[in-house]
């Protein structure tokens, strides 16, 4: 059974590999027409991504104030201009991760806070900082991660691609449940607060807005979308998603390069 648009009150979209094309573009006029129809139907648009809020916001320069954001894999939740939730990693855990990473100089780390993300002088170079700045629109140099004064949401270490599984296992063993390790790309691992994922962020909005998971639709392509796809009554895996992600969703829609999210929303609204 397909829900009619009148039943859908929340549409959650992942960004990379889902909403935007490979070149980070999307069909802005088409999106604006859909957003208008969603507003008329009383449905809210939610950006649900592992990325930093400030980067996600900049993708929607004229509309971000009427949207909600589940950023940093659920560790940062904002409804229009109001902050709903931010994770707060215990200082002892933050320092433990820093110590673990310092034993392995090939790990290049990004510390992700509410106010900004941070790179540490001496452990990464300017080229890494500039590459990171594409994804973190608020990024600062610091001399020592342990001296950062911010609420810490997650760590985003980059490791040699051929050693991804080695470091994934190492983090799981060394962190002993204090943080969860999730792979977020070919050479990237996110170290996140347990229980913080996109579905937990959506649940905060669902409860706030007095709706049900059955009234939610979600789109995703990656491993960090699986909880969200299972949580929402109407779930779509992108055609470019892995088999594991497709198995978690009710439907498959066209790929991100074929504007699959907008194609589907055009039919729903």
From the structure above, extract its key features:
single chain; 269 residues; alpha/beta; Hypothetical Protein, Haloacid Dehalogenase-like Hydrolase, Chain: A, domain 2; 8-stranded mixed β-sheet
List the topology elements.
Elements: E1 10-13, H1 15-19, H2 28-40, E2 44-48, H3 53-59, E3 68-71, E4 76-79, E5 82-86, H4 91-102, E6 111-113, E7 117-120, H5 126-135, E8 139-142, E9 152-155, H6 164-175, E10 180-183, E11 189-192, H7 198-209, E12 216-220, H8 226-231, E13 234-238, H9 243-248, E14 251-253, H10 260-268
Parallel strand pairs: 1-2, 1-12, 2-3, 7-8, 12-13, 13-14
Antiparallel strand pairs: 3-4, 4-5, 6-7, 6-9, 9-11, 10-11
Describe this structure in words.
- The protein has 269 residues and is an alpha/beta fold.
- The chain has two domains: 155 residues, HAD superfamily/HAD-like (Rossmann fold); 102 residues, 2-Layer Sandwich (Hypothetical Protein, Haloacid Dehalogenase-like Hydrolase, Chain: A, domain 2).
- Helices cover 34% and strands 22% of the residues.
- The protein contains ten helices and 14 strands.
- Strands 5-4-3-2-1-12-13-14 form an eight-stranded mixed β-sheet, with helices on both faces.
- β13, α9 and β14 form a beta-alpha-beta unit.
- The chain is globular.
- The two termini are 16 Å apart.
């Amino acid at each position: 059974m397909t829900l009619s648009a009148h039943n859908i009150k929340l549409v959650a979209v992942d960004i990379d590999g889902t909403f935007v094309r490979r070149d980070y573009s999307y069909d802005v006029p088409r999106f604006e027409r859909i957003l208008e129809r969603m507003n008329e139907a009383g449905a809210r648009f939610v950006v649900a991504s592992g990325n930093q809020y400030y980067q996600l916001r900049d993708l929607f320069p004229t509309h971000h104030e009427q949207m909600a954001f589940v950023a940093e894999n659920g560790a940062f939740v904002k409804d229009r201009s109001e902050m709903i939730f931010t994770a707060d990693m215990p200082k002892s855990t933050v320092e433990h991760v820093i110590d673990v990473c310092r034993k392995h100089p090939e790990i290049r780390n990004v510390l992700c806070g509410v106010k900004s993300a941070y790179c540490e002088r001496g452990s990464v170079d300017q080229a890494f900082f500039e590459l990171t700045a594409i994804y973190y629109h608020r990024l600062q140099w610091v001399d020592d991660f342990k001296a950062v004064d911010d609420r810490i949401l997650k760590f985003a270490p980059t490791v040699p691609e051929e050693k991804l599984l080695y470091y994934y296992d190492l983090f799981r063993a060394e962190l002993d449940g204090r943080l969860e390790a999730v792979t977020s790309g070919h050479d990237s691992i996110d170290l996140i607060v347990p229980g913080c994922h996109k579905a937990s962020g959506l649940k905060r909005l669902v409860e706030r807005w007095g709706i049900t998971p059955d009234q939610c639709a979600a789109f995703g392509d990656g491993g960090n979308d699986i909880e969200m796809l299972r949580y929402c009554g109407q779930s779509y895996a992108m055609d470019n998603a892995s088999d594991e992600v497709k198995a978690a969703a009710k439907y498959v829609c066209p790929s991100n390069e074929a504007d699959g999210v907008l194609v589907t929303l055009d039919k729903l609204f």
